[in-house]
Amino acid sequence: MRHVTDEEPPADEAPLLDELMPWSVAPLRLGRSWIVAPDVRTLRARWDRLVAAEGAERERLFRSSRARTPSSSVAALPGQRTGTGRLARESGPCPAPVRLAHGPFDEQWLIPDHRLIDTARPELWRVADAHQLFAVEQGYVPAPGPGGGPALLVTAALPDGRSPAGRPGRIRPLFRRPGGREPNVAPGLLALLGERYGHEVAAEELLAWAVAAARPSPVGPRVPLPRDRAVWVRGVELGRLLTGVQLRGARGGEKPRLPGGCRPYVRAAIPARPTTPVYDPEEEVLELDGGRISPVPAEAWEFRVGGVRMLEQWCAHRTAPAEPGTLEAIGPAAWPQEWTSELLELITVLALLARHEPERASLAAAPSLTRADLRAAAVLPVPQGARSPASVLDHQEEGPEGQFALL
Question: Partner of 151 for a Cys bridge, out of 57, 216, 334, 380, CB 3.0 to 4.6 A?
Answer without folding.
Answer: 216
